[in-house]
Predict the 3D structure of the following.
Amino acid sequence: MTLNSMAPLEPVIGVIGTGYLGTTHAACMAELGFEVVAQDQSRERVARLASGELPFYEPALAELVRRHTASGRLRFTADVADVAAAADVHFLCVGTPQAGEGMAADTSQVFAAARALAMCLERDALIVGKSTVPVGTTEALAAELAPLAAPGIEVEVAWNPEFLREGHAVDDTLRPDRLVLGVSSGEAEKALRQIYVDVIRDGAAVVVTDPATAELVKVAANAFLATKVTFANLMGELCEAAGADVTTLAESIGLDPRIGPQFLGAGLGFGGGCLPKDLRALIARADELGVGHARRLLGVVDEVNEGQRVRTVETAVELCGGSVAGVRIAALGAAFKPGTDDVRDSPSLAVAARLRDLGAIVTVHDPHANDNARAVEPDLCFAATPEDACRGASLVVLLTEWEELVRLDPRELRPYVAVPRMLDARNALDPQRWQLAGWEHRGFGRSSDRAQLSVGSRVRETELMQ
Ligand code: UGA
């Protein structure tokens, strides 16, 4: 196969799957100047995207999709043959959710999409996986696709994992810190370097490696981030037992450049469609490969993270005097993190639902995720503003640290609640600010909460007298 047959000087880009990853990749490839055809099996999704409407909230992406559907560089189709006919390099961006049973990733969409594409190809093609997959997928896929393509047509499979974060998807794609190119030939490397020429020129580091390493880089990165959060949470537990402060601890160890300050935020823990699923998929793969230590470490990370949700619920129950039955609780935040309307494996929504299950009357407010949360937990009440969610509440729980929620003024919020009691499950608030405004504040592993015990009891006394 020659570079020109695989990727001519101005290759047309195909994108299979228009979820978070695929839509962002397609729009960003168009922004880089390529003609792009993006395919999804859902006709409804294709129609919405073609009219410039995103099926999820992602800052800056809708504008990019609209700009390039209008410029003609980006089009959407439900027909994979359309992509096969038009494109030279095909990016696989379909989902790899946790399999129904067990911890492994379900790669059936990757295989099905690649098979369908291979059978329609009319010329040599480079298929580049971007989805997060178990190590060994590229090799298995290449073996499966080779006999499916028409005689004389060569298909090469490479892996180029994606590291974008929800809420920063466009910027992370156009200005990534690194590009990992998992390739089996010099031609594939050249084709990918050609596609990313502007991104590389703008400073992205390039790592060229084999597909297996590229596949592992992605899951290892997510597993490491998950481990870092869990480490902070374990330190939080220690701080709580010892009367120390985990936010100061995290800030101090984070000043060491070998450690770094990010992902040391102790609190409710990680969630979303990626970190938990990728961690579990790596555990499953480590099991298959017989690598016991990795399995044990990552298993504890998952367990501690799930435990943070339980701790948060237990703390809420404790703050409410031992039971939340019949207690009005305001749950601020439902998305798994700020900047997204994604509620997949959201610790915030899980805590709200659990409190509801324990008999609390829970009203949720999320700046962008109310609709998605309602679709998953229709029995919860939802409010359009934080003030409405807090009306008559005896406990407010900050579950997702949206900037507008963190900035709430405790004095202005005070008249809405029955009892000024705040459980800051993300350690995102300034305890003193809330305490000075007459609130009982409880964070996670914070010494400032001890100092305010007397303030808390004063609040309870006032409440009893009212
Ligand atoms: C994550 C990775 O950061 C991306 O690099 C990767 O591409 C993506 O998964 C993916 O595999 O597609 P994302 O799921 O958007 O991105 O979310 P993160 O920003 O990584 O946050 C993950 C979770 O960790 C959130 O629930 C967040 O609240 C939690 N977190 C983060 C903490 O609990 N503490 C922290 O200090 C930082």
